[in-house]
Amino acid sequence: MGDGWGLLFELLVALSAALVFGVLFEKLKQSAVVGYLLAGILVGPSVAGLVKSGQTITQLAEIGVALLLFTIGLEFSWRRLLKMGRLALVGGTLQVLVTLGIAFVVSLGFRLDWKTGLVIGAAVSLSSTAVILRILSDQSDVDSVHGKATIGVLLTQDVLVVPLVLMVTFLGTGSGEKGVLATLGETAAKATIFAIVLGLTASLLLPRILSIRTMARNRELPILVAISSCIGATWAAHAAGLSPALGAFMAGILLADTRFSEQMRADVLPFKTLFLTLFFASIGMLADAKWIFQNWPQVLTVATLIVVGKSILTFCCIRSFMPSVIGALAASLMLAQVGEFSFVLSRIALENGLMEQELMQLLLSSSILTLLVTPYLVKLGPRWARRIAKYLVPARRLASQEIESHRAAGLKGHVILVGYGDSGQAAARELADADGVQVFVLEIDDRLVGLACEHGHKAQLGDASQASILDHVRIGDACAIIVAVPDINQCRLILSQARAIAPHVPLVARARYALHRDELDMGGASVVIDEETTTGIHLGRAALKLRKGEVLLVGDESTGYDTR
Q: Do 280 and 37 touch, CB atoms closer than 8 A?
């Protein structure tokens, strides 16, 4: 019991410090992730000592890494990666291999062991998906030329995390060449069996569970399915002697091509945020503040070499795949830091004796410093890239490249229709009669998602009260949002979320009763259509027509409600 309360206190301290520093760094226009890292340093053993060992928090943080890889796997599909083309597949892979190779050679120049050199190269080659995506999203820069290029490379890096983790693990076995090959073969066999079992579960069992109508009525149940899938795959991989992160990633990939992927990603998002906060705080606890203060010149030098060197190498690797020099330069600057999975690799190396404590401190401290400058690299990257490009490319050719590289992409000017019951279907039919209006349906009932697709609309299974779902359907570029769900509480949540994310987009809401009209109006709806008033108007018009002797047919639209 005492240990349990001690753990609770350490969690309280870690999360409270992360909250305070996260808020502080957001106010300073920095990334909250950097605040989490510094919070870990301050409450950890090297400074305040409020969290002494951090072992349990580290284990919880590993669950956060698994959840991150699970969500990345859900976003990763072979079709999506192939759609990104050679920039992601070839350019991203080339960037990792070239950066790893150069860092390896530099490490050998400092007379480090070749295994240590490979670990350093692997760690330096990866960038921060968590930090970059957050800032790009905040700036609405995800669909820019440099944003797409950056995300493409990050996606490839995330895929390559798994073989890099396996490589570092094998290097730490201490076995000879035959031992490593035997271990590799055994791991490959286990991974194959694991993938087959997981694939059968993901393709046969989970879709049937999620298609049960009860799942659509109770939002808690799909969340439990998502969390159980992730944690179950993570535990199964660990039990089979595989990397837990590998199990979570494979589970995400296998579910990525199902229509439930986006909703499952949104469902695990709050849990991922919690555990990832613990992950970054636990990394900060590994850092020694006194050591950093005593060795700040080396830390600053290594961090500068990483940012400058990685920017140059990344530009050389992706330039030939991009029509715009400015876009390639901006993306290269954004990818110049050391990412969160580098800490995972470094910790594995430390535990397996591949890296000394002092070298670990140098790499860790330098990595934190590169993360500290990342918000500036992402925000100012395009401006700096434009200035640098003027010295590399003639002005006329530069202008031509800019015009060629900017293309409209994705959804734009569409109507988001939330709810595809009888009211939603009627609204969709009305919109279909208007030329050039694209309807995108959001539904939590899988059966209705299929029905919307049959009717020729784009549709996705998702809970529109979650910000990530609305972001995914590009709410900021929509021309209007129709909320046709019958539940007043759900409708209010959706309106609140939509108004917060895209205040400029008109919102049309449905109310079952007139008494809810004012509530939804105050909740942010531009127009509220309540069923009681609408029905009364229809009844009155129908009675007047019958009084005049007119014959009304079922579904006669002449009795329709005039919103003017």
A: yes
- Say if CB 139 and CB 379 are below 8 A apart: yes
Is the CB of residue 385 less than 8 Å from the CB of residue 322? no
Length of the chain measured in residues: 564
**Distances from the Cα of 197 to the Cα of 126, 193, 411, angstroms:** 30, 6, 36
8 A C-beta contact, residue 39 and residue 281 = yes
Q: What is the pLDDT of residues 294-315, one digit of tens each?
A: 888 999 999 999 999 999 999 9
Please give the radius of gyration of the chain, using alpha carbons only, rounded to the nearest integer: 27
Nearest to 139 by CA among 507, 503, 387, 476: 476
**Residues 304, 302: Cα–Cα separation, whole Å:** 5
Cα–Cα distance list, 187 to 70, 190, 192 (Å): 20, 5, 9
Give φ, ψ of 434 to 5 degrees. Answer: -90, 130
| Pairing label, strands 527-530, 458-461 | unpaired
Secondary structure of residue 179 in the 3-state scheme? helix
Burial of 375-386, coded b for 16+ CB within 10 Å and e otherwise, reads: bebbbebbebbe
Q: Is the pTM above the cut of 0.70?
A: no
User: Quick one: tokens of 117?
Assistant: 């050199």
Domains, the chain, with CATH or none: 67-272+302-392 (1.20.1530.20), 415-559 (3.40.50.720)
CA distances (Å), origin 121, targets 116, 164, 177, 295, 332: 9, 10, 21, 22, 17
Question: For residue 205, what are the contacts with CB-CB under 8 A and spacing of at least 6?
Answer: none
Q: What are phi and psi of 428, to 5 degrees?
A: -65, -40
List, for residues 48-92, the tens digit of each pLDDT value. 778 776 566 666 666 666 776 777 677 666 666 566 667 888 888
CA dihedral 167, 285, 131, 478 (to 10 degrees): 120
What is the DSSP annotation of 282-350?
Answer: HHHHHS-HHHHHHTHHHHHHHHHHHHHHHHHHHHHHHGGG-S-HHHHHHHHHHT-S--HHHHHHHHHHH
Which tokens belong to 344?
């995972």
pLDDT at site 96: 92
Quick one: DSSP state of residue 203? I
3 state SS for 359-388: HHHHHHHHHHHHHHHHHHHHHHHHHHHHHH
